[in-house]
Amino acid sequence: MFAPRTMPWPLVALFTAGYLASYLLPTTVGRLDSALPLSATQAGAIGSALLLSSASAGFTLAARVDRFGARALARLGLVLAALGYGSAALTDSVPAVVLGAVVGGFGSGTMTAVAASGIAAGRDPHRATTSGLLVVSALAGALYLTIPRLGPGHGLPLGAVALTALAVWPFTGRLPARTAPAAGSDGIRRPLPHRRSGLLLAATMPCWSLAQNALWGVSGRIGLGQAHLTEITVGAVFAVALGAGLLGVVGAGALGPRLGRALPIGLGTALIAGCVALSASATDLPSFALGEIAWNLCYPVVLSYVISLAAALDARGRWAVLVGSAASLGTAAGPLTGSLLSARAGFPAMGEILAMLLLLAAVPMAAVALRTAPRRLRVVEISLREAPVPDLAGTDVAARVTPVTVGGVTVRDLPAKGIPVVRIPLTDTPTATIPV
Fold it and tell me: Contact at 8 Å (CB) between 61 and 108?
């Protein structure tokens, strides 16, 4: 689908625009609660509706990006996001705000699906993912510093997401109008590979995502109500926390696959659980800042490895989209879950419950990473000495394209002179027949 030689910046831009709404969720939900005639639970429900709409877009488009074309779907998502979030920002009518949030959420999910499919099909999914997380964290951090100084009202965070969607539009011109067909080159539609590992990861991700976004959705209220901070101070803490997330993303990008995926995912999730419990029990600025900053330092690191793991399960990006959409389901339920738990049990008890859920989710996620760890393969070289290789020097280039397939490895450009050599990795697959 995509085979970029350099960083796929159009996909990184789409990734940023698609994830920005969830990154701004705490201030969005808090301002809906304060600016509109809504309770905290109702405001959290609107945030959940936004993210649920985003998840539904991902599930709908998981296997259809290459059918409709990346450029068309990306532009559709940008239009829906700009119209939905923009209209919600400009009205005080609660039904109109809900409708705009749902439409904008579907646009965010569409952009994320295109970005995830393209990144998974690229040459270095982990590097592209960390770049996307780096950009969206930096943008969200800047907005957390800026929005409190621009005045009250629910329209500012929603308007920022709408404007970001418009700013990303020029990048879509570099996306392909149509991508590879869904079926393989032999006309056979390929099923999802690594089905058991993919299903286990997709089933675990809602719990992993819900636990964190339940806290993220009420973090603003913890800072304002339990830690007794001002909105400007809370915004500054979030900005510093997202800045720490930038350091985490840079570190994850520099580390790459050196430690594999199981250790960063398993140990990182355990560290996140401790940060969630600390942040939820904070009663002053130092404890609140420490919990939020440490949490945001670890979260994007683990997320980058999870996205990379999902991308490794299928080169066409279908598992990446499905796992991302499953995570969005947990994200969608997060604000409402956090509001309900905090209202009934209090913030500290909520943090303990969410921390336990994260620890339980870490086990199957690390198991999938171990199961799908890349193995070192031996390689054998086969010289096709019996193959007649005519002297094609000086002939048309098209005449020199003579496909030779060996165990799924196709050599198309044979040399004008000499003996072609095919390098084949020795796997557990049956012995291949070499047609000559």
Answer: no
Q: H helices of 222-346, where?
A: 231-255, 262-280, 285-312, 318-345
Cβ pair 6, 127 in contact under 8 A: no
SS3 category, 383: strand
Token output for 284: 């002053």
State pLDDT tens for residues 38-50.
Answer: 887 788 788 888 8
Provide the residue type at 393 as one letter. Answer: A
| pLDDT tens digits, 323-357 | 877 887 887 787 778 888 888 889 999 999 999 99
DSSP string over 19-38: HHHHHTHHHHHHHHHHHTT-
Specify burial of residue 333 (Cβ count, 10 A radius: 0-12, 13-18, 19+): buried
383 bridge partner residues? 421
pLDDT tens-place string over residues 248-269 = 878 877 777 777 888 889 999 9
Q: Of all helices (H) and strands (E), which one includes residue 41?
A: helix 40-61
Q: Collect all residues with Cβ–Cβ distance below 8 Å to 418 and sequence separation of at least 6.
A: 389
Cα dist from 261 to 159, 254, 330, 389, whole Å: 37, 14, 22, 45
For the chain, what's the residue count? 436
The string of DSSP letters for 314-353 reads -TTSHHHHHHHHHHHHHHHHHHHHHHHHHHHH-HHHHHHH
Q: What angle do CA 425, 433, 396 make, to 5 degrees?
A: 85
Q: pTM of whole model > 0.85?
A: no
Cβ atoms within 10 Å of 128's Cβ, excluding its own: 28
